[in-house]
User: Fold these one by one.
Assistant:
Number 1:
Amino acid sequence: MPQANSELPRTLGELRASAFSENRLAGRSVKDELRANLICKLQRREELFPGIVGYEDSVVPQVVNAILSRHNFILLGLRGQAKTRLIRMLTTLFDAWLPYVAGCEIHDNPYLPICRRCKTLIAEKGEATPIGWLSADDRYVEKLATPDVTIADMIGDIDPIKAARRGQDISDELTVHYGLVPRANRGIFAINELPDLAGKIQVGLFNIMQEGDVQIKGYPVRLPLDLLLVFTANPEDYTARGKIITPLKDRIGSEIRTHYPASLEHGIEITKAEAWMDRQADVEVRVPHYISEIIEQLAFSAREDKRVDKRSGVSQRLPISVTENVVSNAERRAIQNGEAVAVPRVLDIYAAMPAITGKIELEYEGELKGGDAVSRELIRAAVGKVFNRYFEGVNMQPVVQWFDIGGNLKLEEDVNSADVARQLNGIQGLMEKTRALGLTANEPDAVRASAGEFILEGLYAHRKISRSEERGFTAEERKRPAQEPEENPRARQRRQFN
């Protein structure tokens, strides 16, 4: 098959003599093409959707089944579950190039034209009919559903100005202004957030899904379109903003549920792939694995917290945005202090709270407490869980004892790494514990400072030590035993008299 656009046939006659013969293209639909190419990929054991992590055993097999069944399908899931990204990758199942009648708004098949213009053009020019080419990406049309979308936007309308200029009857097919759906002919048409589409517009999709054609404004214009229709929706939107009407839902072949990452490792992998980390700067950025774990655990903890609205969900964009903010804060500190290496610390996660509060919807209890307070508690809980993974069973008593006998340490956010590492070295037994994090004696000060602070934050999370804005890390206040109630004076006198 030709690989470059310049090598492709330019006329209908050249097309007939090429690999794109009438036998190959005339009777093959979009769904047949996707099915055939998917089968080839499965036979070669190729990765179907590179970059989609955590769906290998759940969502992807269901998408494969839908395509093999030639179904229109819908992806149902909360925000930030890679629904849109997944459907955009369906174009990788298309042929590299697809011929169409050049200049056609709906990309008519040269062998089976459906619009009046192309039928007339082919009848006039025959084998000299010009041919255009669509790449795989050109065959994908996406629309975000909103309540103001009209039938004209989706299907099309009669254009009276076009009719007047051409001197044609207004019911003539050549006066049609095509909407998004016909313009997606011979490709994929995707609608994001389907419940937001008005009910009467959803009704307009019936004919396409059942009969494969559209009708424009009640005029006798019928277009048997060749499409794969794919939808996405948030299940909670059925009641929050709208719903998918039952007859349309009945015509959708497969309903596939998406989900958030099932494991911390999958979440970290997604965040690393999506977060902007390759920065053009003189400062080298190193993100310790325990920092990545804390950020990802933060999202997992938020999804389980009763103060966070589970119907809204906690998007995977939260750890992505937090990671970018955390790296930026560490980068800023390194630049200000003239350091060559920027290593995020736990305090940088607290500094990234603007990337957290905007991405969680709170229940009533959370609203009473406030977004900042809930976010701080979520960070603290995440630090505590990650700390346990590295230091469960490790004796931290020498470090705690240093604070119990009066020691305290306040770490300022913008202090250079060398000063922070020197202060941490003064705490008995602290820095030797960093070996559990994989640190060696030759690590830069920024790495050692981050590790030492993580241990202190972990102890604080488990209430072994305390921390305040004024004094920093200090000893945890021990609960004093309750005093016995003071004896009644008259009772004491009676006891002394007796």
Number 2:
Amino acid sequence: MRCVIIGAAPIKNYERISSYLKPDDFIIACDAGLNHTEKLRIRPNLIVGDFDSTKNPDSKEIETIVLPREKDDTDSVYALKTAFSRGFSDFLFLGMIGDRFDHSLGNLSLLLRCQEKNFPAIMADDFSEMEIAGKTEVEISGRCKFFSLLPVSGPAEGITIKNAKFPLENGRINPENAQLGVSNEVLPGKKAKVSVQKGLLLLVKIFQS
């Protein structure tokens, strides 16, 4: 069973986001992420938060973990750690990318934490879908308009990109020249393939302009 963790970042295209959900998903709503569940037509299995951005529902029907406002972990990181402790190993993150750049960038650590454990994880927003690319080859379908590859843990080496407008063999991308990985395209009728021998890349698939 997959765990879906929902944060408080804005969601405008609920129809698109709801297409990612499965009937048997275990849903964790983080603080104001709870406000998304009604529009997504789902009921959370667990609510986690310090409730600085929404009211504590005080529901006796839904398990709720109330966190202190001053803490090392964000609500979403605490939710992920809780999911790890309960045996989940497949993740979808929603409501994580929004107007606050610092929050959005910090939330990318959720994908890295899953990568450390070799757990599949995807983060989706109104326009894109993100995951971590490493040694295991990742396929990219032609459904996405563009895709970008950005270093997220220092230099990435031994990068191979196949079936794309800008292919690459044994390439390198550093944080200071991250623009080299921006806006590639899948060749018509193909699936692009990406792998990294050393380091990690954030794969961002753009589905809308």
Number 3:
Amino acid sequence: MPAPRTGNVTALRCVRCSASHALEQGVYTCSACGANLQVEYDYEAIRASWSKDDLSGNADRTMWRYAPLYPVFERFESPPIGWTPLFHAPRLGEKLGLGHLFVKDDGRNPSASFKDRASAIALLRAREIGLDFVTGASTGNAASSTAVLAAALGMRTRIFIPQTAPRAKVAQLLAFGAEVLAVEGTYDDAFDLCLAATSRFGWYNRNTGYNPFTREGKKSVSFEICEQMDWTAPDLVVVPVGDGNIISGVWKGFDEFRRLGFIDRVPRLLAVQAERSDAVVRALEGDGTIRPVSGETVADSISVSVPRDGEAAVQAIRASGGFGVRVSDDEILAAIPEVARGAAVFAEPAAAAAYAGLAKAVEGGRVDPAWTVVLLITGNGLKDVGAIMKVMAEPRRIPPDIDVLLKMYPEG
């Protein structure tokens, strides 16, 4: 196995006990306490060799324009990942009394999910250490993302999913050549079985909230938001939260740009969880400790009993001065047409949960109407049409007869 290069990486640091691990050790979690690890960089060296001027002259409009802040040396030339649109959504904001509401639509990525950012870094890391086989557990999006990008790299994948994963996501997996194992149980059951397999067989594990390199891809969304907002951080970023890895990555991205002097402050983070999958929100409201919940929700992408990156998520939200809210399944499903008709974005249930949570936070007086708010849409609605149709009326069936239309619409 080739020795991994380190570049600007200085260490893998434990989020709990701060123990330091060298990148060359190839560990996933802290050997001292078992908690998750976070990649650290030599920010002074990066600052000395890379600047906002370098970015302004860079024609690359993908996540790879931020290469000095990644722990890999290669990049995906195709398909393009990242630099998804960030746009003002005045009609959607008007419903909430927010004049500066922006939508970041990450459903535009190759697999129609935010998770491509994470898979890109994790898979390249595997290839750089000489591995061409990757495994992982997912409710669907991380799995389909892994399959899509592995196909682009010519790598093999073996994916564990809960048997209830949406059919559209399963179809993606199969189309892109993944070996799919549907576990008779929950996402947490699939995750634990995948970990056991990794330990027993030595497979490279891409699992979110376990592989520290997934966070490194997810932070790229924050880099893009800063640039797209002309180097001004928003006041609030709204993130749907399941295992906690996205929101911890969002925080890390903003914090790294602050440390480099690219922005002068970081935004507050609003964590939105489903009512029965709210372990992170409970921890925020309590002593900060993650405890199991049922994890049941229609929003499969945020259906988690034990958030695998929950500890880092709580730290990130608190460090940002942010907060969390929980929303019901009914509120999540009702948010899908609201986002579609207000911002012309088709969001899967987990992504629409962000809007439902923002609406609840506004109603509770926790959002200043003058704030600039970014709503992170993490996945496209075509990923889970079955759930979405629960709140949509079926089309009216009519015969191919113009007279029928004349009776239905006598005035045209």
Number 4:
Amino acid sequence: MNRDSQPDARSARERAYQGTKQRILDGTYEGGSLLNEADVAETIGASRTPVRDAFLSLEAEGFLRLYPRRGALVVPVSADEIRSVLEAREVIEEFAARRVCGLPAAERSDLVASLRPLLAEQDEAVAGGDDAAFARADRGFHEALVAAAGNPILADHYTALRDRQVRMNLVAFARDDERTRQNLADHEAMADAISSADETGLVALMVRHIDGIAAVLGVRR
């Protein structure tokens, strides 16, 4: 391969990777389904080689299980994975809660102001019955809070956790309309707790919030 063609190859691999991963996360490729390289390549608009590379990367991340000459199985979300993701979330979010409540008042005010549009998006999604939009705003809310804690390494780990939880959230919100409304109420209360620097209240809200998701998904913590 000549040097000029390398960027195109990287672009094809990235397109195949991102496209396949997004379809796994949003449920287009359901857990338990078997993916074929040729079919995915046609869908993504790439050749089979970058799709094969994408499959290898997604297997390393635990989203796929490869079977030679048969294809790639989309790994279903298991109870153990849900439990592990939620436990890891709790550790990071408790840290973030304590850190943001210790920020100066002006910085807390800016954070709350950045969270309000996400609350409005969730409210609109509830009214419109748009589970996917609700899940996107939910992720944005929590990632903004964790980012405000000022630890980029934890923020990167948290983003990876949220990738895993996208599929879980779609199931959770689709299963239980009351949980969706409670999720929004929790977020509104979290924003108020940040505004008033109520560290104890914010930590308690986060733990209850995560426990609620676990309950909807039928996982004991």
